[in-house]
Structure formats: structure tokens, C-alpha cells
Amino acid sequence: MKIDVVPTQPAEGQKPGTSGLRKKTRIFMQPGYLENFVQAIFNGIGGAKGKTFVVGGDGRYFNDAAIQTIIKMAAANGAERIIVGQGGLLSTPAASHLIRLNKTDGGIVLSASHNPGGIDEDFGVKFNVANGGPAPESVTNAIFDHTQSISDYSIARVDDIDLQSTGNHMVGELAIEIVDSVADYQALMESLFDFDKLRALFAGGFTMRFDAMHAVTGPYARVILETRLGAPKGTVLNGVPREDFGKGHPDPNPVWAKDLMDLMMSDNGPDFGAASDGDGDRNMIVGRNIYVTPSDSLAVLAANAHLAPGYRNGLSGIARSMPTSAASDRVAEKLGIASYETPTG
């Protein structure tokens, strides 16, 4: 394996937040721009040597090419193992679960969340730490410091890896495992929720529509809802991920999920509706002729969590972002559990 140490210089504007670094796709495609940031990630966490990472993204334009670059740089930086979602796809919750399940040193998630995708739209890279959560400020600050002082990056000059088929590969000493993007997350859901009761619900005539907005949750919803739970085919709308999100805007709100809203507000609407964003970590809940605000959705989930097998012992606390309404605070007070307010993002 030939390793190139490529001279470089700092690029402007590479300060990540808890949601990572987001820029226009063409900026990330500039020679050395992505490479600089990935090298800064490795440098900022004390190096990649001997470490294991999860890698995947929401399937937007440049997702596959970026993953190939990350694999080659991980190999050149001495990483031991990389776990990649099949086709380069991993929802943010699924990536978080794989990090914890495999006890990795973190993960690189490629997403600009609910921002539109395409060569003239947005792209993003974020680092999640070993607990599966977004990198804290101490880590993002360390990464940024290295973007300011970087002088070279290391990359292996090897062929691209087949991301479309599950299986194992080696690039030098780096073991690469392409895994089913859905399987482990599906198993997690089955451990948390009563799938027998949910199957019975659909068998009894319950109807719903889930709008995946041509983003990453389409494959998850099809397997879990239509295959495992027996929801009728067609329950999942816009279920095929597209690199430009079908020229839509993967932001689950009444404006961008208008077709779902129109259906739910019609005389013949289904019992339940939902939509999710580009990387699958935000949702919109809609009832027949009623829109549920995100703050109320959080409060309802918290108030009823004990009904799900995975949460039968209740919750330790509830966290909401600063601008979110205080509905969940009232639930926490009634349940006698802690309530937390976090910064936006």
C-alpha cells in the first residue's frame, strides 16, 4: 500500500459545531478541502492509529466519493477497522447505535441534516464520539485548532472499495466491514418496542403513511414498517434515497412535506402520519386532521415511554432544546424526573 503525504495549507471556515461542518457541496469537492478536515479530525482526537470508526451518511450528492476518501485516509493514518453502511448509507441514529454496539472510537457521519442536497446544494461532515453522541465542544475545538495549523495529510493510493455489497475488505492493515445499514438498527428497535402489538395493530386495520422524503430513512421504514410489522405496501412514501432528495427539501414540516399534510387533512386520510429529515434524527408527527408540534411530540413520548418494553422502568430525565416549549418540563415534573435545557443544535 502506497501512502502519500500531501503538503497542504489551512482552508478558511473549517470550524465545526456539534452538528459538524456544513458547506456547499462544491466547497467540499475542492482539492484538499475534505482531506484537510478529515486529517484534522484524526489529529484532533489524538490520531487514528489502532482505532475503529463507523462511517456512513444520508446518501446526498458526494456521499460515496467522500467515504472512499475517508477510508483511504483512515488506512494511511493507521486505523485498525472501519465499519461502513452498505451503499454508504447510515441514518444518524443507526450510526450512533453502531458506534456503541461495536464499542468503536467514534464515527464520521456525512450529512447536512435537513438541508437540500446536490452538487449546488449542501454537504456536511461531523464526528461522533465513542458514546455515539456528537463531539463535545472540547473535541470540536481541538479539531478546529488542527484545521488552522495543518501542513499535510496522509492518504493511501489504492482502488475504491465496493460499497454496494456487504462483506469484508483489507486496505493495507485496515479491515473494512460493509454492513447491512438496517439490520442492527432494526434489532435495536425490536428490543425497545413491542413488535407483536404493533403487528396486531396493523393487522387490525390501522393505517399510516411515512414520508421518507427520498432521504436515508426510506430503507429503514420499508424493512421495519412494511416487512417486519406488516404494514401494507405503500405505507412508506418517497422511500428510495436519492442524492438530491428527489429535488426536494428533506425538512419534515408542513411546507416541505405538503403532500403528506394534504393527505392527513383529507376526508380519507390514514390514522397516523410521520416524516423524517435527511439523516433521520428529526421527525414530524401528524394525526388525522391534526398536526403535532415537535415539543408536544417529545412530551407525549416521555409521558408514555414506560409502555414500551425497552423503557418499562421509566426515564431518568427529559432534555429539550432551549427554544422548545416547556410541555416536556411539565411531564418531567409530574413524573418526578429531571428536566434539562440544552443549546440549540
Describe the structure in your own words.
- The protein folds into 3 domains: 3-181, Alpha-D-Glucose-1,6-Bisphosphate, subunit A, domain 3 (Alpha-D-Glucose-1,6-Bisphosphate, Chain A, domain 3), CATH 3.40.120.10; 193-292, Alpha-D-Glucose-1,6-Bisphosphate, Chain A, domain 3, CATH 3.40.120.10; 303-345, 3-Layer(aba) Sandwich (Alpha-D-Glucose-1,6-Bisphosphate, Chain A, domain 3), CATH 3.40.120.
- By secondary structure, it is an alpha/beta fold.
- The mean pLDDT is 95.
- Helix 2 (33-44) packs across helix 3, helix 2 crosses helix 5 and helix 10 runs parallel beside helix 11 (327-335).
- It contains 11 helices and 16 strands.
- The longest helix is centred in the first third of the chain and has 14 residues, at 63-76.
- It starts with a strand and ends with a strand.
Task: Name some characteristics of this structure.
3 domains, five-stranded mixed sheet, Alpha-D-Glucose-1,6-Bisphosphate, Chain A, domain 3, seven-stranded mixed sheet, alpha/beta, 345 residues, 23% strand, 16 strands, globular, 11 helices
Secondary-structure topology with pairs:
Blueprint: E1 3-7, E2 21-24, H1 25-28, H2 33-44, E3 52-57, H3 63-76, E4 81-89, H4 92-101, E5 107-110, E6 122-128, H5 137-149, E7 152-156, E8 167-171, E9 174-179, H6 183-192, H7 195-203, E10 208-211, H8 217-228, E11 236-237, H9 258-264, E12 272-276, E13 283-287, E14 290-292, H10 294-304, E15 317-321, H11 327-335, E16 338-342
Helix pairs in contact: 2-3, 2-5, 10-11
Concise summary:
This protein has 345 residues and is of the alpha/beta class. The chain has eleven helices and 16 strands. It has three domains: 179 residues, 3-Layer(aba) Sandwich (Alpha-D-Glucose-1,6-Bisphosphate, Chain A, domain 3); 100 residues, Alpha-D-Glucose-1,6-Bisphosphate, Chain A, domain 3 (3-Layer(aba) Sandwich); 43 residues, Alpha-D-Glucose-1,6-Bisphosphate, subunit A, domain 3 (Alpha-D-Glucose-1,6-Bisphosphate, Chain A, domain 3, 3-Layer(aba) Sandwich).
